[in-house]
């Protein structure tokens, strides 16, 4: 993730055709476990998923929703506080996944061993007046430690990274995995699905449609101007006035701040984030099991948009240069932190 091409890491299309190699590699590995081995006592066949930061504002509803996902057979809940209570509570739900709780740093490796998918909402949230980048000093270290565990215990797992600032934490994770020799850009995904969820909702409001009928591609990173809603690519096909474009772009780019201010010091988006994280995780699991045509957006390193192969976005997206500049700086900040 260096230079211009780094700034271009942004599109995520988790299409099933990208993932067969991943599935194949996992078949032969001692970590992964084909469908049969994924069977836990009392559970249906399915995937093993760990949530790191499971007792938090996002972690709790996310754990509940993942327990309801039929593709999950084993759910590991890890946090440095309160995991036993959350685990006991969630484990009483009469759905297929078996739930296990892991409390404290010494349990991290156990929580991660054998996982197919690791979702990370660990870290502190914003308060009014803060930027996501203001969280860097605390969250960078948390993400680094957790990713070192992933490299040790489940190097072929898909990682869904939620902890902010996503534009830098993904770079930190990538550096950790590179150092461990386990980095595969296809497996490391910064979660920007909440931007898509918000865009669908706000665009549907303007168009007078049901949000479930609306599909707004949102690319780029996950902070202010780095969030790039592609309003010309909305489905169903439609057009907006310049005023609508300004209103929608501003609202989508600042949706997180809208929630932070409304919560007035009690944190940032948790419930909509848990919903978005599950939507994204479900897309990953469906891709992983070989389902065709699964498409989602995330923040990742993409060779498709390198300097030598300009991406079509370079031509069409207003604000892209601004986004690239800010992304390049955020990525570099993460890289420098991880390398020091
Ligand atoms: N990507 C996105 O779209 C998006 C959306 C909303 C929030 N976020 C980010 O998600 C993060 C979590 O938000 P929240 O509202 O759930 O915060 P929270 O404070 O409610 O929960 C965070 C949890 O992380 C745990 N934690 C802290 N250090 C840990 C460690 N070393 N290992 C494991 N767990 C650890 C805490 O104990 C806590 O339970 C924040 O950084 C926030 O900015 C991202
Ligand atoms: O805005 C935040 O700090 C949390 C999150 O990134 C969001 O978009 O809601």
Automatic annotation (TrEMBL):
<comment type="subunit">
    <text>Homodimer.</text>
</comment>
<dbReference type="Pfam" id="PF02866">
    <property type="entry name" value="Ldh_1_C"/>
</dbReference>
<feature type="domain" description="Lactate/malate dehydrogenase C-terminal">
    <location>
        <begin position="192"/>
        <end position="314"/>
    </location>
</feature>
<dbReference type="GO" id="GO:0006097">
    <property type="term" value="P:glyoxylate cycle"/>
</dbReference>
<protein>
    <recommendedName>
        <fullName>Malate dehydrogenase</fullName>
        <ecNumber>1.1.1.37</ecNumber>
    </recommendedName>
</protein>
<keyword id="KW-0576">Peroxisome</keyword>
<dbReference type="GO" id="GO:0006108">
    <property type="term" value="P:malate metabolic process"/>
</dbReference>
<dbReference type="GO" id="GO:0030060">
    <property type="term" value="F:L-malate dehydrogenase (NAD+) activity"/>
</dbReference>
<dbReference type="InterPro" id="IPR015955">
    <property type="entry name" value="Lactate_DH/Glyco_Ohase_4_C"/>
</dbReference>
<keyword id="KW-0816">Tricarboxylic acid cycle</keyword>
<keyword id="KW-0329">Glyoxylate bypass</keyword>
<dbReference type="InterPro" id="IPR001236">
    <property type="entry name" value="Lactate/malate_DH_N"/>
</dbReference>
<dbReference type="InterPro" id="IPR022383">
    <property type="entry name" value="Lactate/malate_DH_C"/>
</dbReference>
<feature type="domain" description="Lactate/malate dehydrogenase N-terminal">
    <location>
        <begin position="48"/>
        <end position="189"/>
    </location>
</feature>
<dbReference type="InterPro" id="IPR036291">
    <property type="entry name" value="NAD(P)-bd_dom_sf"/>
</dbReference>
<keyword id="KW-0560">Oxidoreductase</keyword>
<dbReference type="InterPro" id="IPR010097">
    <property type="entry name" value="Malate_DH_type1"/>
</dbReference>
<dbReference type="GO" id="GO:0006099">
    <property type="term" value="P:tricarboxylic acid cycle"/>
</dbReference>
<dbReference type="Pfam" id="PF00056">
    <property type="entry name" value="Ldh_1_N"/>
</dbReference>
<dbReference type="GO" id="GO:0009507">
    <property type="term" value="C:chloroplast"/>
</dbReference>
<dbReference type="InterPro" id="IPR001252">
    <property type="entry name" value="Malate_DH_AS"/>
</dbReference>
<comment type="similarity">
    <text>Belongs to the LDH/MDH superfamily. MDH type 1 family.</text>
</comment>
<dbReference type="GO" id="GO:0005777">
    <property type="term" value="C:peroxisome"/>
</dbReference>
<keyword id="KW-0520">NAD</keyword>
């Amino acid at each position: 993730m260096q230079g211009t091409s780094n700034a271009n890491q942004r599109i995520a299309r988790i299409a099933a055709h990208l993932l067969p190699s991943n599935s194949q590699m996992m078949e032969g590995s001692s970590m992964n476990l084909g469908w049969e081995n994924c069977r836990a006592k009392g559970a249906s066949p399915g995937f093993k998923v760990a949530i790191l930061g499971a007792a938090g504002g996002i972690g709790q509803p996310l754990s509940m929703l993942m327990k309801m996902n039929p593709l999950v057979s084993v759910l590991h809940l890890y946090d440095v506080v309160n995991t036993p209570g959350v685990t006991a509570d969630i484990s009483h739900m009469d759905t297929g996944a078996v739930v296990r709780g892991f409390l404290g740093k010494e349990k991290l490796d156990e929580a991660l061993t054998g996982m197919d998918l690791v979702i990370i909402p660990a870290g502190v949230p914003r308060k009014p007046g803060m930027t996501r980048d203001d969280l860097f000093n605390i969250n960078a270290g948390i993400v680094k430690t957790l990713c070192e565990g992933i490299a040790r215990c489940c190097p072929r797992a898909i990682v869904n990274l939620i902890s902010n600032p996503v534009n830098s934490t993904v770079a930190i994770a990538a550096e950790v995995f590179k150092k461990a020799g386990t980095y595969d850009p296809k497996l490391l995904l910064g979660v920007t699905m909440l931007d898509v969820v918000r865009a669908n909702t706000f665009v549907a409001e303007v168009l007078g449609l049901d949000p479930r009928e609306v599909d707004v591609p949102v690319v780029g990173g996950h902070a202010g101007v780095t969030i790039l809603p592609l309003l010309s690519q909305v489905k169903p096909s439609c057009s907006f006035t310049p005023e609508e474009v300004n209103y929608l772009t501003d609202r989508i780019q600042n949706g997180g701040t809208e929630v932070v201010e409304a919560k007035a010091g009690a944190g940032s988006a948790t419930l909509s984030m848990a919903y978005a994280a599950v939507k994204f995780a479900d897309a990953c699991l469906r891709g992983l099991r070989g389902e065709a045509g699964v498409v989602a957006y995330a923040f990742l390193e993409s060779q498709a948009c390198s300097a030598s192969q300009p991406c079509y976005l370079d031509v069409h997206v207003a604000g892209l240069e601004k986004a690239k500049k800010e992304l390049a700086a955020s990525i570099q900040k993460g890289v420098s932190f991880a390398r020091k």
